[in-house]
């Protein structure tokens, strides 16, 4: 049997040889094949005839052509002169590999050359060039700022992040830098925050505060929506940046004065963050080479957004996100179902979560829980809250090691929460919440979620404010799809200890099912109180064998 690896290589070689025969047949007036330096070995690359006066191009077939399409290279000096040209001169084309490319590789190359010809023709239009730079302005700014830093070996932070909040026009902000120990003087990371938000506190929250802390200052400026930000308009000096900011702020901000006002005799760093829609562009201000005689150095830098609007929604459909962030949710039970529901709600933008669970995390929970070994013997609710607080921006979350029923009865006040979710799976908690629906929780919707043994089915009960769960707790007789045998659970050698076998992929399907419906109501969907059920197919129950339920319906 042929070696599969050799078979794949032969497919690539066959396709490239077919292209070589086609191009060599056309002749050198169109494409002259290149040879390896110092030898006569022919490469899978060709020098192409000039597509326009002075523009020289090379066609290259990648090693895995046609799985990766042919590439066209022009002078790398045209990077940031023409759009869609990488630092090495490669032109980013729009051709994607197609199933028929292995059978018609020459046609695949022809598509690339046709696309390149369209690119060359379009570049004759200066307005098209400018619009292309503007439409992908973030990518070009990153390329430009990286090139400036490498070329001049400038002492700017390796990573600069910004939590951009809501403001109009311009606003001062904080800056936290974390420098590596000497001999390196370059900061490893910097975080800028808007207004009074403490950048150092936020950095510690998300685990970014690594190194020696230095405080700095940030100026955030919103650019007009109509302003072009392209290689032709970038500020390339402190003076040019100052003129732009004066124009955008109606002469209210003079950058040199802003710098002077921030100086207090201590060593600080200064960052300017320009914002246009979802895009951010930065200038890191370095001291003037000759103080008093030369202006400061405004170094272009890439600024990565880390605020909740960007991290959770990429600025898309923000009214939905902002509505979710206003909601206060109490979640009872942080086990294998409650913990993924909590995480899904947090990552979907829920603004405040209060998590309650009395149990500690055990190693054997790992296969079905969002926590892991680092949380062993710690309270689930507390550990989950710590994890979500670190990983999800803008979230307010607390974890309480408490018995769910006691916590609701003692610690919850009327109208404290916008939604109560019970994930304990305990009849006693469901009955208590049913009673409280006529008093403490009369104005609060309640949801109850649980899974049947082996995750054969999952259920979500939604109760509108004022509706209550029957005191008979009809979960088994009116909701669950199966009547399970007593020996379904796997017994362990301890008093009353057993478990149902299932894993994360099983229970998280139910968690996602429940969370989708919870978010629909959080987002404002109207409807009557109801029960939703997710269930396995018939084959699942048929294959359970001796642990199959006495009766079931799917």
Automatic annotation (TrEMBL):
Tell me, what is one Gene Ontology molecular-function annotation carried by this entry? nucleotidyltransferase activity
Write down the superkingdom of origin. Bacteria
The UniProt entry, under InterPro entries, shows: Prok-E2_B_dom, ThiF/MoeB/HesA, ThiF_NAD_FAD-bd, Ubiquitin-activating_enz, UBQ-conjugating_enzyme/RWD
Q: Which residues form the THIF-type NAD/FAD binding fold domain?
A: 325-437
Q: Does the keyword Nucleotidyltransferase apply?
A: yes
One Pfam family this sequence matches: ThiF
For the Prokaryotic E2 family B domain, which residue ranges apply? 45-148
Keywords, ordered alphabetically: Nucleotidyltransferase, Transferase
Alphabetized Gene3D superfamilies for the sequence: NAD(P)-binding Rossmann-like Domain, Ubiquitin Conjugating Enzyme
Q: What is this protein called?
A: ThiF family adenylyltransferase
What lineage does UniProt assign to this protein's organism? Answer: Bacteria, Pseudomonadati, Pseudomonadota, Betaproteobacteria, Burkholderiales
